[in-house]
Amino acid sequence: MGESERADAAAEAEARSVGRRVPLFSGIAAVLLAAGLGLLIAGRFDGLPVEIDEEWAEEILEIRGPVGIWLATAMDWLGGGIVGVFVVPLVTIGLLLLLRRPWGAAYFLAASVASAGLVQLLKQLFGRARPEDMLVTSDFGSFPSGHVANAATIAVTLGVIVPRVWVWAAGTAYVVLMLVSRTYLGVHWFTDTIGGLLVGAGVALILWAPFARPLERERQAWHPPGSRTTTAA
Questions:
Q1: Strand ranges (DSSP E) for 74-217?
Q2: By the 8 A CB rule, do 192 and 138 touch?
Q3: Closest CA to 104 of 197, 18, 227, 207
Q4: What integer pLDDT is reported at residue 137 of this predicted model?
Q5: Does the predicted TM-score (pTM) go above 0.70?
């Protein structure tokens, strides 16, 4: 290998290293922002709703109706309880394994568990009271939103595993719908959902770093089951 080739290889390796550090630092920043937001709400506002929470809640109350409540309740069922915590993750992991993406399945599992664990830790730490006019029952702790954190984790991990525009677009739409549905049902303040978004996306980005290399090798080698590949004679 010549001097120029070694220089090119070193530059490419450095670029890949930087590329892995960017999501890591971005994820850490997102988690720290979520924790900082929780500390601000708990310390300065004593856990009470801030101005944007009250304004958002008023807007939601004006548009609340039977169809919206039905859709929001469906999102509540999809993103929480047995379905959200066990069924959706297990089905996703099973599909990834069937598609011969074991590293993708491992990454998804690790991010889901870490995100859920961090959400529960922050809920216990801040102990923020939920809104009083809830339309569905919920567990203790309003900040951050576990449903939104779960949705953000799913969106980012699947976007990393299958880096396609439509996957990121679908994931973004899912997160936005979950965010709106949580406030629509009156189980979270708006800032709770922002905290959940930061936690879920942040954890997924942080765990991308240790999984980046095997995920990239797996992506490059992957072919859907049943697909045919051709090789040059």
A1: none
A2: no
A3: 207
A4: 82
A5: yes
